[in-house]
Amino acid sequence: MRHQFRRLGKNHRLKIKMNGADEELISTDLSVCLQKLHSLFSDAPDLIATKFVINQTNHSALLAYLDNMVDKNSINDNVLRSLLFETVTYTGLDNLEVSIGSKQATSSWIEVQQGILSGKSILFVEGESQCLVLNTPGWPQRDVSEPVKETVIKASRQSFVESLGQNISLIRRYLPDGELKIQETRIGARSQTKVALLYLGDVMNSEIVAMLEDRLSKINIDAIINIGELEELIETNSFTPFPQYLSTERPDSAASHILQGRIVIVADHSPWVLVGPMTLASFFHSPDDYSMRWIISSFIRMLRFVSFLISIFLPALYIAALTFHYEIIPLSLILSIGESRERVPIPPILEATIMEITLEMLREAGLRLPSKIGQTVGIVGGIVIGQAAVSAGIVSNVMVIVVAATAIASFIMPNADLSAAARILRFPMMVMAYMFGIIGLVIGLMILTVHLITLDSLGTPYGSPFAPFHPVAWRDNLVRLPIWSLIKRPFSNRTKQLIRQDPNNRSDDA
Predict the structure, then answer these.
(1) Tens digits of residue pLDDT in 283-318
(2) Statement: residue 508 has pLDDT above 60
């Protein structure tokens, strides 16, 4: 199956006619080759085409590449120095002594143009109907740094970068295993973005791999700029706020998911990778869960589940209680709420909507501004606007507390995509509560539950292990039991090897 996937990617690539490049073969005349290069890159002033004579031979050569897209030190030291100053016995392209780790001969102008655009250099030799594609990429790239979004306390401090090769290497450091399979293809008629699938061959379910391969092979688009675009093209249901793939910037997290029997999708130019198949419970996990004591991790994980429900239902419950069911509120509390709302002329639904939209505006403003200014805007803006709104009689003190508690609950969730889904669902739940009270909340909860259990990620039930019901799997979902008790991989992944550790590997003193 791996070779079939590579063949699909290659065939898709060769069907693309790139800016004048066609199936015309490479000429044995260097002047014709140079003219063809200038026609293919007519508006590319950074094209470098250098003609020279190979040392101690009568063979002329032409080296072409794009400036600032190649490693010039590698070209000077390993290509030009060898051909210009060292003793060369030329017997053909195959035996040409060029100290480049990867090189291949081609007679296709399509592959020549694509190679130059991807940071490779092309060596033409007079009299040869083929040329050498030399792997000399050297574009600017960022060093490995600390994760920005997925901050942890006791886990690794490395994050992915914008290079596919480096990202694969970061994962390989955690999994130096021969069963780590890597499949590559290209997506995008213009961008030709490299995409790689990483998984354990003796663990991963082959049906899931085949399903993902099929979805990738059917993508027909101009370009893939970021991993989010790819996620939408391969997900099962686009009409849902819930993420069906996990986006992570952490190599240790990606390696952990591979060990659990999942597949990691790495795209070039993106510092994030996708992980699938996923379940709803998986989005509540954090790398820190396995670095702390299991009792503490279990408490924090259950806190995340409770916070998820609070972030969706708390404003709606407040609206339902004040609009329809004020009798469920204790008398002393209802008097306090009534005193707080005495000067508020608008109904609770409008009051909550104003505060929630204001909160979302502050959140977005804090994200788009520089970090130091963004934190100041978030804190000062929240305090000033909240206090001014209460003083002006637009909202009540209790509503400010409800909105603040809801915001804090949404911040507890470790996954930003799931947190965003909870923020969106908050508004329809508020409308249902305003129209039907507690009954509306129950209807909303039922609709949400049905939606979650009908979702799937690469054929895996989204509600597992709660629906379908697998109580044994709860030991690493709702809570996190000791590591020595986590003998099996998640049932939902349908892995070839369900057992991931020896059940008798606990020490005698345990």
Answers:
(1) 998 888 888 889 998 999 999 999 999 999 999 999
(2) no
- Cβ–Cβ contacts within 10 Å for residue 164, how many? 20
Best CA proximity match to 61, nearest among 45, 79, 42, 40? 79
> With the CA atoms of 303, 306, 310 and 313 taken in that order, what torsion angle do they form, in degrees rounded to the nearest 10?
170
**Quick count: other Cβ atoms within 10 Å of Cβ 473?**
20
Q: Is the pTM of this model over 0.90?
A: no
* Residue 160 · residue 169 · CB < 8 Å: no
Q: Cα separation of 54 and 86, whole Å?
A: 9
Query: Is residue 160 within 8 Å of residue 249, measured between CB atoms?
Result: yes
Q: Tell me which residue of 53, 37, 13 sits closest to 116, measured CA to CA.
A: 37
Q: What angle do CA 150, 152, 158 make, to 5 degrees?
A: 70
Our measurement of the distance from residue 299's CA atom to the centroid of its chain's CA atoms, rounded to an integer in Å, reads 28
Give the integer Cα–Cα distance in Å for 250 and 272.
Answer: 8
CB 153 within 8 A of CB 234: no
Q: Identify which of 261, 271, 267, 101 has the alpha carbon closest to the alpha carbon of residue 181.
A: 261
Contacts from 319-327 at CB under 8 Å and sequence distance 24+? 319/348, 319/349, 319/352, 319/430, 319/433, 319/434, 320/433, 320/434, 320/437, 320/438, 320/440, 320/441, 322/348, 323/347, 323/348, 323/349, 323/433, 323/434, 323/437, 324/436, 324/437, 324/438, 325/437, 325/438
Give, in degrees to the nearest 5, the angle at Cα 114 between 112 and 117. 110
Per-residue DSSP letter, 467: T
Quick count: other Cβ atoms within 10 Å of Cβ 411?
11
Instruction: Please give the Cα distance from 54 to 125 (Å, whole number).
Output: 9
Mean pLDDT of 435-440: 92
Nearest to 79 by CA among 64, 92, 98, 94: 98
Cα–Cα distance between 444 and 291 in angstroms, integer? 37
DSSP, residue by residue, 359-371:
HHHHHHHHHHS-H
